[in-house]
Structure prediction request, 223 residues.
Amino acid sequence: MKREVFITSDGSTSIHLPDWDEQYHSKHGAIQEAKHVFIKMGLYKYLEKPVKQLSILEIGFGTGLNAFITYLETKKKEISVSYVGIEAYPVSENEIESLNYVSELNALAFKKDFKQIHEVAWEEKHSVSANFQLLKRKQFFEDIDDVDVFNLIYFDAFGAKNQPELWTESIFNKMYIALKKGGVLTTYSAKGSVRRAMQAVGFTVERLDGPPGKREMLRATKS
Prediction:
């Protein structure tokens, strides 16, 4: 499928899929969306309670933006992180080289770390730093079978208009099982069908203010 790197409204890059009229991030701002949906409403919500270790699952590793921002944010707090990114169709080396996240995040000191996040082998756990362990799994979401492993899930799959099978009770049941008690899942989606699917498998679901360009988003908690 054809993919094109483009610049979103906040100056950060993303990838557009013309055949689907879909993009990896909000056209209103890739970095703005990631920071709001997954960091502010996800990571920092979970960190309201004191923790020293954190296990994160990302559904849709994509460009590595969420992983890189999480790396930068948790580095400030000296938290030990185990990060698992699931992706069925990894981004190409040429596409990665076209991304401007290091400069847009004012993170030139961590340029090598961003590069490492993408260059390390799939299916193997790697130490990006002493406190950040990364495992990239090339896997379809329906094949996920983790049980009681994660504190936090970034649910960043393509939208339901193109891949409705990724926003079903079946998939969210896998997410519920994968989370530890008290675990949190955040997603940019605010569709009623998504909220109902989450609730049907046991999640407590909140509607929250969305990122720029989007009115609402969802956060789900495993009681």
Observations:
- The first strand starts at residue 4 and ends at 7.
- The helical segments are 30-46, 65-77, 93-97, 101-104, 111-119, 169-178, 192-200.
